[in-house]
UniProtKB/TrEMBL annotation:
It holds the Pfam family DUF2249. Residues 35-97 form the DUF2249 domain. It comes from the Bacteria. This is DUF2249 domain-containing protein.
Amino acid sequence: MTPDEHAPETLSLHRDRAEAQAAVDAGAPVLVAKSIPKAIRHGAVIGAFESLAPGLSMIVVEPHDPTPLLDQIRGRFPGGVDMEYVVEGPDEWRVRLIRR
């Protein structure tokens, strides 16, 4: 199969991983949430996000879709956060959180 024949989802996955690496290379901190004890995980991610100056971003890495965490952040920072999925599974999700 030539590169032009790859399925769109395969190309998307490679592009997403490249974007995630670009964020790391650009100095955006990466927080691997599964390395934080579950009892304090959301609080730790929220605290890390809160410490960002407006305009800065961080990448959160989870082994599952972090929708509950993202909903919690949206509720705590209404209008103060932009979110974009950089990698969407199946083994890892990376979400860029940008402080407004």
